[in-house]
Amino acid sequence: MSSCDGRVVVITGAGGGIGRDEALLFAQEGARVVVNDVNAAGAEAVVEEVRALGGEAVASTDDISDWDGAGRLIGTALDTFGGLDTLVNNAGILRDRMFVNMSVDDWDAVMKVHLRGTFCATKHAVSYWRDQSKAGDQRVARIVNTSSPSGIYGNVGQANYGAAKAGLAAFTQILGEELWRYGVLSNAIAPSALTSMTEGLTGYKERLDELEARTGWKNPGGPEHIVALVVWLGSPLAQVNGRVFDVRAGHVDVAEGWRPGPAYTKEGGFTVAELDDVLPGLIARAAPQVNAAGEPKSYGG
Ligand SMILES: NC(=O)c1ccc[n+]([C@@H]2O[C@H](COP(=O)([O-])OP(=O)(O)OC[C@H]3O[C@@H](n4cnc5c(N)ncnc54)[C@H](O)[C@@H]3O)[C@@H](O)[C@H]2O)c1
Question: What is the pTM (predicted TM-score) of this model?
């Protein structure tokens, strides 16, 4: 008995990188997989890899940010495998620039794939799950979204991408609150792995090479190290809802989100002078913003 026996899993952007390793592990854990990617050759190649492992998979080359394309993707799961149990929203792109150089096209392209794309695929999947629930045939459904350390801790050069990924963390929490009644649990990962997306980022590969040299650990940036979490979240084993998990090779944690900090309350409104008196003390007592290692961040000066 494997964690995903008999389940049908749709993975967006699975023609390479993290999505490819997700497809391979879901298949090894017993799932039938729809491998989606606008990179058709990549999607077909991953389908062949799944079949070579003895698994079942089908390719979808639809653009998930296109409403009808996302509908065809979910339809492919229903038509080919007769249902849908897990949606992994993984597709993504980068358009990194310092904000002063960022164009509105850089902004829109990133929002389109991450936010609109995740919305479109999720909306079609949830329509199916809601219908199933109303018909008295509720699925043990799971959504796994892909946020990023950039979204929950911030990262210089990624104002567009970080804003989209923070949006996906909030989207995950709200889906968690709304969809459990249809049998759907929603969680997200904030991964770090060496893929075609990250190999060009300054210092990223160098840090991993240093880690490999120091520890002898083979390929510490490999996405294969992080996908067990995604399979767990996409399986009935996971009874968790509305959470974001940091994950990289050898490390997983439950990210703790925004929470109300030191407060000043009174009946009635505030004046500017009053806030000028009170806020510096509250700010001094508030927990600092931290990076992905939990270390306080510097905001200039
Ligand atoms: N690699 C990391 O360290 C890292 C860190 C944080 C978050 N992520 C996120 O993980 C996910 C996977 O990234 P990756 O590192 O494997 O990158 P990748 O570039 O290897 O994979 C992303 C895939 O998404 C596909 N894609 C892009 N737009 C699409 C669309 N509209 N419809 C369908 N497919 C589309 C691409 O063709 C590509 O194959 C992304 O959401 C990324 O933002 C990655």
Answer: 0.96
